[in-house]
Amino acid sequence: MSIELSAIEYRYRDATALAGIDLTIESGELLALLGPSGCGKTTLLRTIAGLEFPDRGRVRFEGRDVTALGARKRHVGFVFQHYALFNHLTVFENVAFGLRVRGWFRRPRRAELERKVGELLELVQLREFARRYPAQLSGGQRQRVALARALAVEPHILLLDEPFGALDARVRADLRRWLRDLHDRIHVTSVFVTHDQEEAFELADRIAVMNKGRIEQIGSSETLYTRPASPFVCRFLGEVNELAAAIHARWTGIDDERVVAFVRPHDLDFVPAERGEGARIESVRDLGATVRIEALDPRLARPLVALHDRARYEAAPLERGRLVVPSARRQVLFRGDEPLADTGARVGHVLRDLLLTQR
Ligand SMILES: Nc1ncnc2c1ncn2[C@@H]1O[C@H](COP(=O)(O)OP(=O)(O)OP(=O)(O)O)[C@@H](O)[C@H]1O
């Protein structure tokens, strides 16, 4: 079932949470809402759920206007981080609850209920835990019970607010993969909120990056990463070196202009300097698969950060105090908030040139 949001605005008494959201989510899509704290992700999710009603704009499911319908009538399943399980009910009863709260006409009979709950527990791989209480489960298992309960109403739309927020890294990674499989198997349209870029990239078909109640950019992880629409998106998608620079007509056909170059640490190389000038290495930290190196160019206020992969580092180790020349394999340039289209090739890939012209 597709979801269409048009011109959605929402104000709390003293804060604008949504400042004009247009977003279409295709049927069967898994979409992530990604953004910093307070940007409006939860409010947007609650607006889709029918737990909040927008001041302006329309919500449509498969073309049908549901703006005025409450949560119960929208038949969506939702899992919120703090939407706790009932601790006095067993796993079975927690999941059955999702079915029992249905309207009288749609409530299943006992045998049917047992079969359905059994199926759902099978789906979330918790059949043998049916008689346990939430306190006897791990965090990841509890989260799966919450999902089974949300799925009990057979929703066409599944909404998840930071579903793995409180879990440790290993369990999060397992549950992500599991959720992606589940989503593909049950043909549901899913929207989940996260402020974790890695989680969004791994799970979602498309990602909507939000900032101050608006969507800055929407696209696949590849689009966001290689063609960020704004410096905000660039900064939000992980660590990045940011350099004020000038480009010259002789490289680009564009006259001198002030631009900002963004270079990801893994797109930056430090090559040992041949002459006695360059950036001086300040720290080298072994992160396992990669080595993180910081070097300060005398013209810059902050060190440049490069990630060398392990094999490369072992072939050419760099130690503190060594002088190096930074060189970028790839960079994204902005003039103010506007991306400079297609400049990568024309500017060339030697960051040194950009650094040399920095004012
Ligand atoms: N009940 C409320 N009353 C007043 N303002 C609120 C309320 N809930 C949220 N806000 C404000 O609305 C804005 C958006 O909040 P929202 O919870 O949607 O953001 P979020 O992106 O989900 O944040 P987080 O990642 O921290 O959960 C914030 O500025 C927040 O302070």
From TrEMBL:
GO terms for cellular component: ATP-binding cassette (ABC) transporter complex. One of its GO terms (biological process) is quaternary ammonium group transport. The keyword 4Fe-4S does not apply. Keywords: ATP-binding, Nucleotide-binding, Sulfate transport, Translocase, Transport. PROSITE patterns: ABC_TRANSPORTER_1 (PS00211), ABC_TRANSPORTER_2 (PS50893). The keyword Ligase does not apply. Signal peptide: none annotated. Pfam families: ABC_tran. GO terms for molecular function: ABC-type sulfate transporter activity; ATP binding; ATP hydrolysis activity. InterPro entries: AAA+_ATPase, ABC_SmlMolc_Importer, ABC_transporter-like_ATP-bd, ABC_transporter-like_CS, P-loop_NTPase, Sulph_transpt1. Residues 3-237 form the ABC transporter domain. NCBIfam families: 3a0106s01. This is Sulfate transport system ATP-binding protein. It comes from Dokdonella fugitiva. The lineage of its organism: Bacteria, Pseudomonadati, Pseudomonadota, Gammaproteobacteria, Lysobacterales.
